């Protein structure tokens, strides 16, 4: 097929956005679009019209049309399939099918159109791949943002510390000034700031406060505030751990609301709090088979009481899947390999206070379908007048307990609500996004399978990709924190802990 242009226009033929894939003048495309409404005949159910030179293939979007202009030699079946993909892209960026919404999202839509068609020919892509290509996530940008946030946090800590030092010095200075004024002084009077500003109202027999050393030569201070500097001494430990602890493996700085509800509030945390976070990225085929699955995990240590700064954390690794473990560079790797104990290399250093510090991370990757936490099978059956869809789930890892499970099934737009038959759990139809949301409060060993059936007009390809979200308090890779001890005498330290296993991306394409 040769696709000349793709456009979203209103019923009068006015172009809201238009993307030409071959050389074409503006007057030519505007003339073709203006002629389109005049060619449509009322009462006919066809989704295409032809002229002597071109073919119009279209789909109504409420008050607008998704319109493709092709040559007459193109394959009409391929044209219709391409049209369906274009129509499914629109709801990805526009909640309301009105002109203003289309104009606001013009550039993202055009970028998505370019992923579907190149030089007039259809690319072999699906909706999930288009979404991935247009997001254009940059690992280098994420690393840069992580480093910048770490530098800003370190600068803020140093600034607060310096402010406290100046406040203490100011109070000492005021006390010293009062004692000089009332003590009779030397000879006829006391030294004051007005008489000798260098002494700054401090008597000769009183030691100068500590702030004078900091203000005398600020350029030579080792702890001076330096944004963006690269320290090469061991004081960089805090910055390194903060950076890795917050951004290792693309960990999101703010999780979903479901994850937030699962995390332990600060008021309920002990002097030492250990958090285990795992996230899963999974892509499976609609006809079965696992294309790729990755699980990234991170152990974070947070010291809420400065008396517990020098500790070691004992980890029990019950994993049988073959995960790849990696400790932070400032963690004693030999000790961890020998006894699964996390402690700092430099025993003189302490963990930073009130800061989540990443100390251990791991990664697991597989294409073994049996390793999936939750298997989803979606079976659309074309009945000629529409589709009967049967979708079912099965918990593959029965030691997991999944909460707040949502299964999102895309639906064709502009065909109304689905007719839902049998359904385990609850469902909700979002007409604006054309999505059927299947909700299950808990999936565990006692509720390891279920299904839902519905009917709606459409094509079997319209119901993919299926997206899944869930949250769990069980670790997928089964790592546990057994004990926290003081490094000095091995005495036990009371600690709190939490486990959060959540979805980064989980889709059936």
The main β sheet shows up as: 9 strands, mixed
Q: Mean pLDDT, rounded to whole units?
A: 81
User: What is the CATH superfamily label of the largest domain?
Assistant: Mu homology domain, subdomain B
Determine the fraction of residues in helical runs and give it as a percent range: 25-40%
Which band does the percent of strand residues land in? Answer: 25-35%
Counting DSSP H or I runs of 4 or more residues, the number of helices is 10
Radius of gyration: 32 Å
> Any idea what the CATH architecture of the largest domain is?
Sandwich
**Global morphology:** elongated
Report how far apart the termini are. Answer: 25 Å
Low-confidence spans: 181-235, 244-256
Class inferred from helices and paired strands: alpha+beta
CATH topology of the largest domain: Immunoglobulin-like
- DSSP summary, beta strand count: 23
The CATH first-level class of the largest domain comes to Mainly Beta
